[in-house]
Each structure stands twice: as structure tokens, then as C-alpha cells.
Write a structure and sequence with these properties.
This protein has helices spanning about 25-35, 110-125, 140-145, 185-190, 220-225, 290-295, 315-330, 345-355, 380-385, 400-405, 430, 445-450, 490-500, 510-520, and strands spanning about 10-15, 15-20, 55-65, 85, 90, 100-105, 165, 170-175, 195-200, 205-210, 235, 250-255, 260-270, 270-275, 310, 315, 335, 360, 415, 435-440, 450-455, 465, 470-475, 535. It is α+β, with helices and mostly antiparallel strands. A hairpin with a 6-residue loop joins strand 9 and strand 10. It binds iron/sulfur cluster (SF4) and FE2/S2 (inorganic) cluster. Iron/sulfur cluster binds near residues 178, 179 and 184. InterPro entries: 2Fe-2S_ferredoxin-like_sf, 2Fe-2S_ferredoxin-type, 4Fe4S_Fe-S-bd, Mopterin_OxRdtase, Mopterin_OxRdtase_4Fe-4S_dom, NADH_UbQ_OxRdtase_75kDa_su_CS, NADH_UbQ_OxRdtase_ferredoxin, NADH_UbQ_OxRdtase_Gsu_4Fe4S-bd.
């Protein structure tokens, strides 16, 4: 594990509480550290500061010093240094802490300011909270209740604006609800690097829109929905499907690439309704790609495998293991592991291969990186395969070697774990020459050709860990149960190990982590439970000479120029 660097601290006083905070922190964030809420709309910790909503007003003062001598001016009444309070309130989002800064957030003046700002924001805001998708997570609703006047003095007609303007294929705008905070505009420009949104018209007629001829269609467009503090932007996939307060939140990891963006899976009664990003400042800040949000659809995909089969007939895990045992006894077994498997599954895959004396191949999966949160390595856990010792080099062209071995008659049985061998480059003729034991979630050419098929679980239906491109081990939890007929991956692997003649292994995370900690040096002091929600950075130096394919992403810089993709 690698210890994080210590920040440079300054001491400030917020509502009478002294606190040391990192230099450069603004007042909103400093107050958050002492559990003081400074309400805000336009400020977002990962975007530039514009200061346009005025909701974050605070009173601020600095210790008084004699202008000539710079000596502190003391207050005889308190015996402490006098504080020079500014006559007018300041915005907390644009005020960075400085040594001795004093802040007041609860004075009558600040209460009056907040009520005034809320009143302006609500003048043209429609009264459609009961049918608004943002209900339950709406900052305007929450802060109107907490900081608003509690009644309206507005007797005029509200502006009427369009209620359903598609900004792109995945984002719908309700113009009336927009409070013109500009978060969505700044996100597109600063993070997605797609400067596609802007305001037109003036005053109460100001409206968010796309530039002429453009659409909000980049692969990060749904982050605008997440950061919109009101219900102006909604996801076309999620809107009107479910009230958020009914949904259970489960921490998960985006499996699209080796970035490992942290996510939350929102589900109810075994059904997933949406995936949103989870803040991890070391990995994905507060963002994720749109493509990763749709991965939950694989759970109920029509081609999902849900029944164990042995030679095409219905079976059980025990009968599948018995049939596999017969194949294993003939020898000449090869194992194809997966960079999509969890660390725990890769560890058991290694044990299976060792018990069988089998060669191990891993499927390389390389695409185009987008320099944000999709990396060139599309395996979420290639580093896991290295750390657990399943492989000791990058998986370039290894399936070609397996194909040649099959051609040469050196392999009789292939155990494919979560990988479609045909998609990975083996020909139909090669597949026809071997007996295949397939563990996987969806039907494909390999499951069709396999003698034994054991349906397993998607990432949403199990718990485990992945190691991302930074060598950060991150855990995820089970969000929903798997389909009836699917086996837990660890149970299926453990049954195969027993079928191969290996020692029985308890197929649960604590037991496997006890073994991992004992046998894998990089994980020596760890348990599944003590991995923090934001992950732990492992020492990746033993593998630093390997030519990983990733280029730069949001919080990752390759140590050296990446090698050319080889698969
Ligand atoms: S749509 Fe939402 S995020 Fe964009 S400016 Fe309006 S209120 Fe802000
Ligand atoms: S948060 Fe909008 S002005 Fe500070």
C-alpha cells in the first residue's frame, strides 16, 4: 500500500469552530469539514467557480493588524485579536481560506440573503414538484424548505417555457425548471471537452440550449443530469420509471475498462433502474461514461444463460462438476481466464489451473481510450490477474498460441471462464476439436459449442474486487440476486477445483481473502472488509516494466510511452 501525501494546512474559524484545512480550499468545502452547510447551486467541487447563483453568501472577516507596524490589534473585551468584518456578504464558493479567516454563516443578514436568493430563484420555477423526477434529490426543493421564506409574495404570472426539449439522445430538458446555474455548460466544456451547451436570451427569458446544429450526445452527457441541482435535465432512460426514495443504493465499479470508475447501482426488488457515478477523487472524481450506465441492461438481456447444461441436457452444479472431472482425467486441459473476472475468481482460476497442470491464457481486450474515463484496456481487472499470479505477462496473442496447441492436438479440453473463445480468435474448427467447459453469463458461440455450460453472475449480482490501471484495488457489492439457475462464480470454480482433484475451498469472500492474504504478497495485510470504499493503492512496481496499453486518463498517467496494442 502507498501512503497519500500530506497537504499544507491553514487554520480558519467558521461559526466559532476552529479548523485546519488545506490551503486553497474554499469556504463551502471548509465549512463542510465541520458539518456546516453553506447552501449553493452553481458551485460544484469539480468544476470552475462562476459565482452566479449567490446562494452561498457568508459574512467574512480577517484578523486586524496595524497598517504601519503589522502588529495584531487586540480586542480589549475578549483579549483576542480583533476581527475586521466586511460590511457586505461574500460568496463562499469564490472565497478561499487564508490564515485566520473568520466566517459567519448563520447571522440575520445571511438568513435574509438566502431568503432573498431563494425568492428570486422560485419566481419562475414551476410548481410541479409532485410530478418532477428530481423529487427526493432536488437541491431547490431541499434548500427552499431549509433556507426559504416559507411563503410566496409572487402574484404575477410565471414565465411559460417548453417542458420537453431533447438536448440529445439521452438527456431531456425542462426549460421552466432550469435555474441557470451553468453547471451543465461548464461540465461539457471543462470535463467532456465538448462545448455544446450555452444560454440564449436575457433575464427571465434566458434558456439553456445546444449550439445550432449540435446535440448533447457525447459519452458523458448523463453527468449533466447528475449535477443539475434541479429537475431541468433528466435521463431519457430513467425518467418517470421510479421514485428515487424507493431505490436501494449499492456501491459498484464500472467494468467498461481498466479505469474502474466508482458507481452506485440503484435497484428495487431485484430490478436495477439506474447507475450513477460515486465520488472518488483519485479515480473518476464525480463522473462516469454514459456507456457504463447502460451495462445493467445485460442483467435481463434475452440471451442471458440461466440453466446448467451437460451435453445439452439440464444438469446441476454437481453433475457438471462430475462431467468435468471425466474430461479432466483425460489430461491435456487448457484454462482461459478473464480480465473481467474478479480478483477472487482469478485466484481460484489460478488454483484450478495449478491443480490441472494446465496452461493459462487470458483474453486481451484493447480499444480506443478517450483520455477521460474509458481507457484503452477494456478489461477491468487485468492488474488483478498479474497480482494474483494468474498470468505473469500481458495477454498479447496468447489465444493464438492456444489455437496452435489445439491444432497440434496438445489440448483436449478447454475451460473457458467468462470468455467467448470464438470472439477471442479461435476458429470454429479449433473449437470443434476440443471439449469445452464454459462458465459465463450470456449465450455465445462458445456456450453453443460447449459440452458443459455453467451460467454465472454479472458484476451486479455478486461481490468482489477489481484492481484498476493505477493498481488500486476497489471492491463492489452485490446489488441484486442472480437469476434462478445461475451459479455463483466462486462456487462454480470451487466445484471445478474439487473435480480436478484439488482441496475443497469455501466459496465465500472471507475464506478466499484469508488465502489471498496468505499467498499473494501485494495483498498480505488485507481483508475484503478493510478495503475502503474508495479503494487502496497497491505497489505496482513489480509490474512497472510491462508495456501496458493505456494512455493518459483523468487520474492516470502512464509511466512510459505505451506499447502498441497487440491483440
Ligand atoms: S439545466 Fe440544470 S445544470 Fe444546466 S444550467 Fe439549468 S439548472 Fe443548471
Ligand atoms: S454557489 Fe453559486 S454563487 Fe456561490
Amino acid at each position: 500500500m502507498i501512503a497519500p501525501a500530506q497537504p499544507d494546512l491553514v487554520t480558519v474559524n467558521i461559526d466559532g469552530k476552529e479548523i485546519a484545512v488545506p490551503r486553497g480550499t474554499n469556504v463551502i468545502e471548509a465549512a463542510r469539514l465541520v458539518a456546516i452547510d453553506v447552501p449553493h447551486y452553481c458551485y460544484h467541487p469539480k468544476l470552475s467557480v462562476v459565482g452566479n447563483c449567490r446562494m452561498c453568501l457568508i459574512e467574512m472577516g480577517l484578523p486586524a493588524v496595524d497598517p504601519a507596524t503589522k502588529a495584531p490589534i487586540m480586542d480589549p473585551a475578549s483579549g483576542k485579536q480583533k476581527i475586521n468584518w466586511m460590511p457586505r456578504p461574500q460568496i463562499g464558493c469564490a472565497t478561499n481560506v487564508s490564515p485566520g479567516l473568520h466566517v459567519r454563516t448563520t447571522t440575520p443578514q445571511i438568513k435574509d440573503c438566502r431568503e432573498g436568493v431563494m425568492e428570486f430563484l422560485l419566481i419562475n420555477h414551476p410548481l410541479d414538484c409532485p410530478i418532477c423526477d428530481q423529487a427526493g434529490e432536488c437541491k431547490l426543493q431541499e434548500q427552499a424548505t431549509q433556507y426559504g421564506r416559507g411563503y410566496s409574495r409572487f402574484v404575477e404570472q410565471k414565465n411559460v417555457k417548453p417542458k420537453r426539449t431533447p438536448l440529445g439522445p439521452r438527456v431531456m430538458l425542462d426549460d421552466e425548471r432550469c435555474i441557470l446555474c451553468s453547471r451543465c455548460i461548464r461540465f461539457c466544456k471543462e470535463v467532456a471537452k465538448d462545448d455544446v451547451l450555452g444560454f440564449i436570451d436575457r433575464g427571465s427569458f434566458s434558456t439553456l440550449t445546444c449550439y445550432p446544429g449540435k446535440q448533447l450526445e457525447n459519452n458523458y452527457s448523463l453527468n449533466t443530469v447528475d449535477i443539475c441541482p434541479v429537475g431541468a435535465l433528466t435521463s431519457t432512460d430513467f425518467r418517470f420509471k421510479m421514485r428515487v426514495w424507493f431505490l436501494k443504493q449499492t456501491n459498484s465499479i464500472d467494468t467498461e475498462s481498466s479505469v474502474g470508475a466508482n458507481t452506485v447501482v440503484w435497484s428495487r426488488e431485484g430490478v436495477i433502474y439506474r447507475i450513477t457515478p460515486r465520488r472518488n477523487d483519485a479515480v473518476n472524481d464525480t463522473w462516469m461514461a454514459d456507456s457504463g450506465r447502460l451495462l445493467y441492461k445485460q442483467v435481463a438481456a434475452p440471451d442471458r444463460l440461466s440453466a446448467i447444461t451437460v451435453q445439452g441436457a439440464a444438469g446441476t452444479l454437481a453433475s457438471a462438476a462430475a462431467a468435468a472431472s471425466t474430461l479432466f482425467q483425460a489430461g491435456a486441459v487448457a484454462v482461459v481466464g478473464s480480465g473481467r473476472s474478479t480478483v477472487e475468481e482469478q485466484f481460484l482460476t489460478k488454483q484450478l489451473a495449478a491443480t490441472l497442470g494446465a496452461r493459462v491464457s487470458l483474453v486481451s481486450r484493447v480499444g480506443q481510450g478517450d483520455k477521460i474515463l474509458i481507457s484503452a484496456d477494456r478489461n477491468p481487472n487485468l492488474r488483478g490477474a498479474l497480482v494474483t499470479g494468474l498470468i505473469d505477462t500481458l495477454p498479447s496473442a496468447q489465444l493464438a498460441a492456444l489455437g496452435a496447441a489445439i491444432e497440434a492436438g496438445q489440448v483436449k479440453t478447454v475451460v473457458a471462464i467468462g470468455e467467448d473463445l470464438a470472439a477471442a480468435g479461435l476458429t470454429a474448427a479449433q473449437l470443434a476439436k476440443v471439449s469445452i467447459v464454459y462458465l459465463g453469463t450470456h449465450a455465445n458461440a462458445t456456450s453453443v459449442a460447449a459440452k458443459i455450460v455453467v451460467p454465472t453472475l454479472t458484476v451486479f449480482e455478486k461481490a468482489g474486487t477489481f484492481i484498476n490501471q493505477q493498481f488500486r484495488i476497489q471492491k463492489f457489492a452485490r446489488a441484486v440476486p442472480g437469476p434462478a439457475g445461475a451459479s455463483d462464480d466462486l462456487a462454480a470454480l470451487s466445484a471445478l477445483i474439487a473435480a480436478a482433484g484439488g482441496a475443497a475451498i469455501a466459496a465465500d469472500l472471507p475464506a478466499i481473502w484469508a488465502q489471498l492474504a496468505a499467498e499473494v504478497p501485494a495483498l498480505a495485510t488485507m481483508t475484503y472488509r478493510n478495503i475502503p470504499d474508495t479503494g487502496l493503492l497497491l505497489d505496482g512496481t513489480p509490474w512497472s516494466a510491462l508495456p501496458f496499453v493505456e494512455g493518459e486518463t483523468l487520474h492516470y498517467k502512464p509511466a512510459a510511452a505505451p506499447a502498441l496494442a497487440t491483440a
